[in-house]
Every structure is written in C-alpha cells, then in structure tokens.
Specification:
The chain is α+β, with helices and mostly antiparallel strands. It has helices at residues 8-24, 45-55, 66-76, 190-200, 202-205, 238-251, and strands spanning 79-80, 91-95, 104-114, 117-125, 128-135, 148-152, 210-211, 215-222, 228-234, 259-264, 271-274, 277-279, 287-291, 294-296, 301-309, 317-318, 326-328, 337-346, 349-350, 354-355.
C-alpha cells in the first residue's frame, strides 16, 4: 500500500459521512461491562472511532488502542500537531504520545472547531457515546483529563503533515505533557467567555440529536455569543414543540439559558374569536349562506355542517349532505331553526368547530306572483 491523496470532493464526502454516523450513535451505551457492537468487551473509545470510519468508507481495521490510530494515520493518511487546526472528522488523541496505554489515554471524533475549543463525539465516555466541548487552552474531558498530543485524519486529503511510511519509528515519548496553546496569563477573552457559555449548555447539548415520534432536537453550531444553536423540528404545532423542548431540558437537568433555539413546526391550528353567521331568507326553498367567523393562526381551508334545531335553537342535529357554504331550505326544515358549524384548518390541523347563532323559524314558501305557493327548491 502507498499513500495517495484523494480528490477533495471525495474526502469531504467521507468526512461528512463520519460526522453523520457518529452523531447517530450519540446516547449508545454499554451496561457497565464495556461490551458493545463496536468490538470486544474492552475499553472502546478507539473501537468506536474505527467502527465509524470503516462504515464511512475508510479502509481502516478495528483498532482497540488509541495509539494504533496514530500509527495507522501516520502510515496511510497523516497526523497533525496539537497546535494545528483539525478538520471535521479527524480524531483527537488525548495524552502525551502513542507509545502505551499510559501515554495515549483517549480519543474522540472532531465534530466542530471553534476559537478556543473543539466539539467532539467520543465513545466510551462514562460508558456511552457523548458529545463534549473540549477547551484547547487546558484540554480535559470527564474522567480522563489530559493534554492533546495529535490529530489523526481518516483520509489523505493533503491538509496535514506528510505521512510516514509503515514500519517507521514512532515519535519519541514526551517527557512532559503538552498543553495546547499554553502561554502567558491573559485577561479573559471573548472566545473564553463563549466557551464558558457553551460548556454551561453541555449537559443537554451532548445528548443531541434527540428523537421521538414527533420531534427532532439537534444542534447546528455555536454563535458569536457562545450560545449553542438548537433546532427543534416537529410535526406538532409550535406550542407543543416548545413544551417538548422544555421537557427535554428537564430530562437533561439543564435550565437552557445557553441556547439559541429555533423551531420548525406547522402553525398552531386556527383559533376562533367570533362565530360564523348566516344570511338569507328563512323560507322553504330559499338559500342560506354562511359567512366565515374570525379565526387566528391564518386558516387556509374551511369545512361546514348545517344543522336543524328546534324552534328555540336547541336540540340540533346534523343535516345529511349539507356540507357546503350554502344550504337550500326544504320542507323538512319547516318550523325549525337552522345553525351552521364551521371548522377552520391550516397546516397545523383543524381548529375546534364554531357554531353560528340560530336563524329565525323557517316558514313556508312565500306566495308566487299569482298568489300561489311554490314548493320548488332552488
């Protein structure tokens, strides 16, 4: 095998597949025994990475030790210095070097790169796949604090350092930990303030995307104010989607102050503010016409049901087939009053039906020009 740079478009597609596959596994967990679908029953952060890479089209074997990720990338793609900026889909290698399990501690997939910090998806993090904010000034992760010693690329797309050939000597062990971007003490920077805010949101942020039957909660990035940008997509109307978001935050024990949330939902169903009305002569053979009531939330369609009621406007029953906006009175309506029920709907569904006031009592057909009665229906 020899090293060969792949076309940029192909490499970009591979990186996108890596991120998509990794995100789909967020929330997957073992049961405290390190037994997973990613490989043998053992520490599985590296097994997770190579499982994702392989399914994204990277010809990498299953590697159980994080240092082997460094060796593989050094041989077939490339590695980056901890002071370089990684590409999305790279893996971050925590520790001081690839030599042993005592120096190469943990790994995760780089999902986002921001000034002062990374966003990663990491396997075997407290026995689960989780998303993390990793500050670069002093890289630490839950359970295994430590510096970053390298980034390893899944593809040879030419962005990093020149690769080494298989069998070449590993870099010598570092005597001291390498702290990324370490320098003289400085006053707090805007980037650091952003990091603090993003980290505040971590508890819920690391569990996105969250899926249920009617809602998808996902993150889209971190804005200039350090707020985690969240999109809630739901088939439920806006009011219900907002309740689902608040329920998600309660599940994550997070107050949600560090989020900028947008909703993609159908509108709330129409809400009536005044009933429909009826116009026309209440005589057998005459047509009655319904006029829309007032509805909030922009209705786009209406349905109707005309009803026969007693002389007091009570004890109403639906008239079969009378579902248009007009209704021609028949002899069956004589002595009754008439109401119409209107239902408005939009993309969010139908609102609650609203019923008009009752008409006056329906009388007989008025006399024709000759003084005779006409029973003809229009």
């Amino acid at each position: 095998m020899f090293w060969l740079a792949v076309p940029a478009a192909s490499a970009t597609d591979t990186r996108h597949r890596v991120l998509s596959l990794a995100e789909q596994e967020i929330g997957y967990h073992d049961y405290g025994d390190w037994c997973t679908k990613f490989g043998p029953c053992e520490a599985w952060c590296s097994l997770f990475v190579t499982w994702v890479w392989e399914r994204a089209g990277v010809p990498v074997p299953s590697l159980a030790f994080t240092g082997y990720l460094y060796d593989w990338a050094s041989a077939w793609t490339y590695v980056r210095s901890p002071r370089d900026v990684p590409e999305l889909g790279d893996v971050v290698l925590f520790g001081t070097g690839p030599e042993s399990v005592y120096t190469s501690l943990h790994t995760g997939i780089v999902e986002g790169v921001y000034p002062g910090y990374l966003v990663t998806i990491e396997g075997d993090s407290l026995h689960a796949v989780r998303r993390y904010v990793v500050p670069l000034r002093n890289p630490q992760r839950v359970g295994e604090p430590g510096p970053i010693y390298a980034y390893a690329s899944p593809v040879a797309d030419g962005y990093g350092l020149a690769p080494r050939r298989p069998g070449s000597t590993r870099f010598p062990a570092r005597a001291t930990a390498v702290i990324v971007h370490q320098g003289a003490a400085q006053p707090p920077l805007t980037e650091e303030q952003r990091l603090v805010r993003a980290t505040v949101a971590l508890r819920a942020f690391q569990h996105m995307p969250f899926r249920s039957n009617q809602v998808l909660i996902s993150w889209t990035g971190v804005n200039r104010q350090g707020l985690v940008e969240v999109q809630v997509t739901s088939t439920m109307p806006l009011s219900s989607a907002r309740r689902a978001w608040q329920a998600f935050l309660r599940r994550s024990n997070d107050a949600g102050r560090a989020y900028a949330v947008s909703f993609q939902t159908p509108p709330d169903p129409p809400l009536s503010s005044s009933p429909p009305s009826i116009s026309g002569s209440t005589s057998v053979g005459q047509a009655l016409t319904e006029s829309h009531g007032s509805w909030a939330n922009n209705p786009t369609a209406y349905t109707y049901q005309w009803e026969d009621c007693d002389a007091t406007g009570q004890s109403c029953s639906a008239i079969g087939g009378a579902t248009g906006q007009t209704y021609v009175l028949t002899a069956n309506d004589l002595g009754d009053t008439i109401r119409v029920q209107e239902t408005a709907s939009n993309a969010g569904g139908p609102g609650q039906p609203e019923t008009s006031a009752a008409t006056s009592v329906v009388g007989p057909t008025p006399p024709g020009p000759s003084g005779s009665q006409s029973g003809a229906r229009s």
